[in-house]
Give the backbone structure.
Amino acid sequence: MEQLKHIWNSIIEFWGKLTDKKKRLIKIGLILLVAGSVIIAFILNYKEYTILFRNLDEAETVEVMQHLQKNNVDYKFEDGTILIPKKQESLLRMQLAQAGHPRTGINYDIFTENIDFMTTDYEKRQYEVFQLQERLQGSIETIEGVEKAIVTISIPERKNFAWETDKNESSASVKINLRSGYTLTPSQTSGIIQLLVKSVEGLKEENVAIVDTEGNSLKVTDEMQQTNTIKLKLEIEKEFEKETERNVTEFLSKIYGPENVQVSSKCTINFDKKISEILQYLPDEETNLGVPRDTHNEREITGEGETTGGIPGTESNAEVPTYPGVEIRGDDIYFRDSSTINYLVSQLKEQIEHNPGTIEKLTVAAVINREYMSDEELEEVRKLIAFSAGIDTENIALSNMVFYDPDSPSVPVIGQEPGEEGIQLKDILIYGGAALVLITIIILIIVIVLNKRRKKKELLAREEIVSEEEEYSWADIEEGIKVQETQEQAIKKQLKDFTSTNPEIVAQLIRTWLKGED
């Protein structure tokens, strides 16, 4: 406390020593500092608001305000007008247009800075169109992938002539420049069209054109809509198949392990909307008849004698009436009456609407990595899969097979009983090599035998030639024999070298021959 008092006294002492001029300067500086701080704080906290929607009905106003609250937008509501920060205007208009807002009221402000009391009605309409075009361009450019948008709106001049028959309609065109690698989805294109239709007075969807920088139409046609519907159907079916496969795989993995189960499914979904009507007639439970609506009687009477007609009585219509001037003799028919009863039957009319998305067929195929499974075990697993997928067992294909393993030396055998030994890869190589050696030896033996026969024939032929013609000498014959013996020795040397270099194959071949003899 003493320190504060000392500081205060120092300030007073310092202030007293100042001249009046310096005091005025300090006061002015403090005032400017405070005013500047207030102005800076006001500028930093100031938000420029603009009109989002106005004159909406109560229900839609609540929906729009809920959307703004959900997105943490600092909005204001004054006299039926919703105000939002101007920086967020384009983004919010696009979001609300995709959600179908506004459905009531107008969604743009027709006044601009260029309008004053000197502005003509024509200029006001043009400024309104310019402002609307700029606002729509900004809204469309907030869509992801849209780099630039150019909006052109044509609104016909209003004419209040009763006899006017040829009325022009409003139209709009949008040129969109997309970023590289981006395309507009049908939902985004539909959102742009709805934004234009709701923003331009009298604009219809068929009068809106959307093109890209290459002039290609981006508007969804009936053919494109059908293609998108088919694509959506396939995506839904594929998603349902993945969900089924995931459920069955998780279920079987608890039993056999995730690496020992392979599941595939196929789903067919009917997306047709169907309405059926059932009409039942319900008679009375006691009489099995309906309620009489009207009754008509008919009777016929014949008789003898004669009668004179008179005036029909009025006390009872059941009596036989007589008419003046009518005589009936003999067996002539003198009275006929008919009776008809029409019943009203209760009706029960029942109308059933079948929503699209009904599963027509679902099949599941599963393979388990097991060498052997009994029929009882397969049937039990098939029932469990049926309950898991919600289908009948007839729509389930289940089998046990040994999965391929590149690190395993054995070749998997499907349906092999437990205890049986499969064919080993090593055995295949040994038997194959032995068979190759055997075939080689047989070929060599055949070649040797054929050479011997050929040599023998040549020798006999030469002997005949020598006996007949003496110009051939014994020296030439002996030289030929030596050549033949040299070829036989070369073949024998090849066999000897093969035996010395591949003793295991030769030994395996001999064992195979011995087993064959046994």
